[in-house]
Design a protein that fits this description.
Strand content of chain A: over 45%
Mean pLDDT of chain A: 96
Order of helices and strands of chain B: EEEEEEEEEEE
Radius of gyration of chain A: 14 Å
Largest sheet of chain A: 7 strands, mixed
Order of helices and strands of chain A: EEEEEEEEEEE
Number of strands of chain A: 11
Distance between the termini of chain A: 40 Å
Helix content of chain B: under 10%
Structural class of chain A: mainly beta
Largest sheet of chain B: 7 strands, mixed
Oligomer: heterodimer
Radius of gyration of chain B: 13 Å
Helix content of chain A: under 10%
Number of helices of chain B: 0
Structural class of chain B: mainly beta
Number of strands of chain B: 11
Distance between the termini of chain B: 36 Å
Shape of chain A: globular
Number of helices of chain A: 0
């Protein structure tokens, strides 16, 4: 079974750093790009960026470029999303999702990681 | 950036009735359009890709149509498990940017 399993919920203070993870299993991790998607409380889905785990090439949405970093460690089939200095406005659910080889749709999705930033 | 607009924001439907959801792109995305279902507390689930191809395991009551800038998701006979929020996503200019619509909530009438 193809699965993406994300790390657990985090509670952080403004200004702190954070890295959350997404581990793939049941498929060749380096054969599919991984994307990250943000969902703020009560809001819709926003595509943040993607990474090719085979060479760590990344693309970001202009809205998130410079605010987050996407990386991957193919040796452990894991992708990461990280912040160097969190803001209260980063409070959201974050999903990773596998990008289809034949097109740009996402399937499957991870279960989500809730990040809460509060002083 | 291509903007995706979904309508209506909320759709009230009785079980067994048909639901028709719309998604409009600000410029042509050909057939590069996907639909997702999201239930409360759950991750989104892929329903449709390529505007009209059902994903694995998706019931036949879900169907997608359209191309260019106008797309429709139809649920032929709503079941209790279908009440959820539905999102469209374009991937025509992939890479580098993909965009989602704002969502349509399908609620029980």
């Amino acid at each position: 079974e193809v699965q993406l399993v994300q790390s657990g919920a985090e509670v952080k203070k403004p200004g702190e750093s954070l890295r959350i993870s997404c581990k793939g299993s049941g498929y060749s991790f380096t054969s599919y790009w991984i994307s990250w998607v943000r969902q703020m409380p009560g809001k819709g889905l926003e595509w943040m960026g993607r990474i090719d785990p085979s060479d760590s090439y990344t693309n970001y949405s202009p809205s998130f470029q410079g605010h987050v970093t996407i990386s991957a460690d193919k040796s452990i089939s894991t992708a990461y999303l990280q912040w160097s200095s969190l803001k209260a406005s980063d409070t959201a659910m974050y999903y990773c999702a596998r990008l289809a080889v034949a097109g740009g749709w996402f399937d499957p999705w991870g279960q989500g990681t809730l990040v809460t930033v509060s002083s | 950036e291509i903007v995706m607009t979904q309508s209506p924001a909320t759709l009230s439907v009785s079980p067994g009735e048909r639901a028709t959801l719309s998604c409009r792109a600000s410029q042509s995305v050909s057939s590069n359009l996907a639909w997702y279902q999201q239930k409360p507390g759950q991750a989104p689930r892929l329903l449709i890709y390529g505007a009209s191809t059902r994903a694995t395991g998706i019931p036949a009551r879900f169907s997608g149509s359209g191309s260019g800038t106008e797309f429709t998701l139809t649920i032929s006979s709503l079941q209790s498990e279908d009440f959820a929020v539905y999102y469209c996503q374009q991937y025509n200019n992939w890479p580098p940017v993909s965009t989602f619509g704002g969502g349509t909530k399908v609620e029980i009438k």
